[in-house]
Description:
With 398 residues, the protein is of the alpha+beta class. The protein has one domain (3-397): monomeric porin ompg (Porin, Beta Barrel), CATH 2.40.160. The chain is built from 5 helices and 16 strands. The strands form 2 sheets. It has a 14-stranded antiparallel β-barrel. Strand 15 and strand 16 (388-397) form a beta hairpin. Helix 4 runs antiparallel to helix 5 (161-172). The longest helix is centred in the N-terminal third of the chain and has 23 residues, at 73-95. The radius of gyration is 25 Å and the shape is elongated. 42% of the residues are buried.
Amino acid sequence: MNRKALAGWISLMMSPAVMADAFVDARSAGVAGTGIASGDFTRANLNPALLTRFDDNDDFYLKLGIRAQAKDYNDTIDSVDDVQDQLDRFESLFNNPDPNNPPTEADAQSLINSLKALDDDTIDGQLNAELAFYSPSEDLAFGITLGGQLWAKGDFSFAESDENLIDSALESGDFDQNDIASEGLARAVAVNEIAVSFATKFSVPAIGGLSVGVTPKVQRLDSYLYVANISNYDSDDYFEDQYMTDTTGFNLDVGLHAQVGPALVGLVARNLISQDIVNVAGEKLTLEPTITAGAAVDLAGVSLELDLDLIENKSFVIDGADEAFLKPRQWARVGAELDIFEQVQLRAGYRNDMSGNYDDFFTVGLGISPLDTVTIDLAGEFGQDDEIGGAVQFGVKF
């Protein structure tokens, strides 16, 4: 892969997917993002109330994780590189004419076909990274999280005028690839936050123990929008100041957790304060509140969980341009985990977008937790159209 393709990967392949989930770590990713009811304090990123779920010998937990997801990346980047190479060769036929090798209609048509093929190409990507420290307690638990999420989408469009430009070059004997109007456009939004979580557990009549958690946090939102014609598309320019905007604000998550008979239940509301950012094109993107409910049961070492988004998530949907960036989504997630002697965990999951805008995903995961002290978690995520993702996490319990 050349330098431009590598830069394209860094700048465009940035989460989840596409999904715009919360900070889903590798353990949760293996079970399709579930965990707000079945998780313990090590997954307080999903629900701060989980900070009250721990074993007697658990004092605190430190974890570092990263998760990435991408769709159609390799083929699209290769296609862009091929088109740019074709433009260079076609232009050289006019700038350095060779009587024995003049430009032909076949050369022109091949270039036109390659430009048209880009019209259907997109790149979707998401990246999550998180460093967290959790100290559990039923009286007053707390946690600190440093996290970042990045969603990106690249689109390439064919301009009909380019067909006439290329055809007419055969007659005029002159061609300048800078006149090409077909273009590539990249949008991205990043959310970085510093969060402090608190939780406590108390008794409620008819329910029993009820855990409540809150996570106040400071968030910085960054938007990126880069546009260039295909011949000048250079992802090295992507992060220049002229393509970026940012804003900073305060936000809040609230979570509940309880055990009702043999079932565990959870409810979490995230990003209760909407945050807006306007990109350099004047498009407003909004981080919207979400509410998710979960229920889980533990059957002889097998945990089963169902998590449902109770409202449609319209975060970072651009009004009047459904295809421009993210689409509304409302996820239903089902996950299962088999714990083998508290040393190895096998995981699988499935998620479906009830809004019908995103394809289904299947997930698998592996956890290794020798002596319940060091934890290593791996996950793979698989969708349609070569959409794949992976996550890795390392943690230490004390």
